[in-house]
Design goal:
By secondary structure, the protein is of the alpha+beta class. It has 6 helices and 8 strands; from the N terminus they run βααββαβαβαββαβ. It has helices spanning about 15-20, 30-40, 70-80, 100-110, 130-135, 165-170; strands at about 5, 45-50, 55-60, 85-90, 115-125, 140-145, 155-160, 195. The radius of gyration is 16 Å and the shape is globular.
């Protein structure tokens, strides 16, 4: 069955919140107010569906918009321009089925047209070898570590250079061609094109 990636809908936020808070210690819990702020401010907030059921989601913030995360601030001190993956969550029953890879491919296709670097972190405390291997297979490399204030959680800070960005920037500057597949996720007042992959 295909995996469909599309913009989150406001009426789905309760389901997204439940999915986030059931993910375990490798994902920080959320409350509905913070998730609502993500919905209002994130550059990228998309869900993956498999067989018509919510299978995962990914939230990302571009450095030009800003974000109140200490991990985002860590990257901002070191990179003038980047796309930050705040969180990716895959339903436990869907792990290992390609949902995470599909979400990462989708955010990379969005980010590489707009930012030179994709950034994220993996918590070290939980001995998360699977997450480190997953990110390494996507070309992410550790560029430092950061202890998150108020939590004591140590994170491995990862970045990936997006090799398409320089060519896109030199060729198009800030004006990408007017094509549906180049549209920003969650454009104001418009529906965004859903993509499906196998």
């Amino acid at each position: 069955m295909s995996i469909v990636v599309r913009d989150v809908r406001e009426h789905e936020l309760d389901s997204v919140l439940a999915l986030n808070n059931a993910a375990g210690p490798s994902i920080l819990p959320l409350d509905s107010a913070r998730l609502g702020r993500f919905f209002d401010t994130a550059d990228y907030f998309r869900v993956a569906e498999r067989d018509g059921t919510l299978a995962g989601f990914l939230v990302g913030f571009g450095s030009r918009r800003g974000h109140d995360s200490s991990n985002f601030a860590w990257f901002a001190e070191r990179h003038p321009d980047f796309m930050y993956i705040d969180r990716v969550v895959v339903a436990s029953r869907r792990r290992g089925g390609g949902v995470g890879r599909t979400l990462y491919a989708d955010i990379q296709s969005y980010a590489e047209l707009r930012y030179p670097v994709l950034a994220c972190e993996v918590f070290i405390e939980h001995d998360n070898d699977a997450a480190r291997i997953f990110h390494g297979s996507f070309g992410f490399r550790e560029v430092g570590q950061h202890v998150m204030p108020g939590t004591g959680i140590r994170a491995s800070m990862l970045t990936k250079e997006l090799c398409s960005y320089p060519w896109v920037r030199e060729t198009y500057g800030d004006a990408l061609p007017d094509q549906p597949w180049l549209a920003r996720p969650r454009p104001l007042g418009e529906a965004c094109l859903a993509t499906g992959t196998r």
